[in-house]
Write a structure and sequence with these properties.
By secondary structure, the chain is an alpha+beta fold. It is built from six helices and four strands. About 60% of the residues lie in helices and about 20% in strands. Strand 3 and strand 4 form a beta hairpin. Helix 3 runs antiparallel to helix 4.
C-alpha cells in the first residue's frame, strides 16, 4: 500500500478511503486539512470518515492542521494532528437514533390516543346516550301507566348498557394492554412498533 508521503494528495481520498461526514462522498482533495495547511490555512476540528480494507467498520477522525513556516516566514509545508473520535461519533449517532425512535413512539402514542378518543365518542358514549334516552322514555311510559312498553324500553337500555360496559372494557385494555403488566412499558412499546411495522408492510 502507498504511504501518504509517496502518494500525491489528490490520490489520498481514494487510496486511503477518506470521506465527508455523510460517509458516502469522497473527501475533496482541496479540502483536506493538510492540503489547506500547506496553503497557509489553520484548520481546527475537521471531521473525516475513514473506511478502507484495513478499517472496514469505519473510523472517525478529527483533524487539526497548521502550516509550517521557513525562516523567511513563508509556508514550507504543513503538519496535521489526527484524533480518533469514533466512540464519540457512535455515541452521538446512537443518541440521535434513540431520539428518532422516541419521537416516532410518541407520535404513534398520540395517534393511538386520538383513535381511542374517537372510539369513546363514537362508540362508548353513543351506547350510554342511547341507554339514557330509553330510560327517559321508559319513565315517561310508566307515567302513562304503559308498563309493557316501559319494560321494552328498559330491556333495550339494559342491552345498550351491557354493550357500553363491553366497549369500556375493550377501551381500558387498549389504554393499558396486558403486555405492560407482564413485560413492562419497554416491551409494550416494542410490540406497538412491531405492530406498526407489520401494518405498514415494511
Amino acid at each position: 500500500r502507498v504511504s501518504a508521503i509517496d502518494a500525491h494528495p489528490e490520490c489520498w481520498p481514494e487510496e486511503f478511503g477518506l470521506y465527508l461526514p455523510d460517509r458516502a462522498t469522497p473527501f475533496p482533495e482541496h479540502r483536506l486539512p493538510l492540503v489547506r495547511a500547506m496553503r497557509g490555512e489553520i484548520v481546527r476540528e475537521c471531521e473525516i470518515y475513514v473506511c478502507n480494507p484495513q478499517r472496514p467498520a469505519g473510523t472517525w477522525l478529527s483533524v487539526n492542521a497548521s502550516p509550517l513556516l521557513d525562516g523567511a516566514g513563508k509556508v514550507a509545508g504543513g503538519v496535521a494532528v489526527f484524533r480518533d473520535i469514533t466512540f464519540h461519533k457512535q455515541a452521538q449517532q446512537q443518541r440521535e437514533a434513540d431520539a428518532r425512535m422516541l419521537r416516532e413512539t410518541l407520535s404513534m402514542l398520540e395517534e393511538e390516543r386520538k383513535l381511542i378518543a374517537y372510539e369513546i365518542h363514537d362508540g362508548f358514549l353513543q351506547e350510554v346516550v342511547c341507554a339514557k334516552w330509553q330510560i327517559e322514555s321508559a319513565k315517561s311510559l310508566l307515567g302513562q301507566q304503559d308498563a309493557t312498553a316501559a319494560k321494552g324500553q328498559l330491556d333495550g337500555a339494559d342491552e345498550q348498557l351491557e354493550s357500553a360496559i363491553a366497549e369500556g372494557r375493550r377501551l381500558s385494555s387498549d389504554l393499558r394492554p396486558i403486555v405492560i403488566d407482564e413485560g413492562g412499558i419497554i416491551e409494550a412499546i416494542g410490540q406497538l412498533l412491531q405492530e406498526r411495522i407489520i401494518a405498514s408492510g415494511c
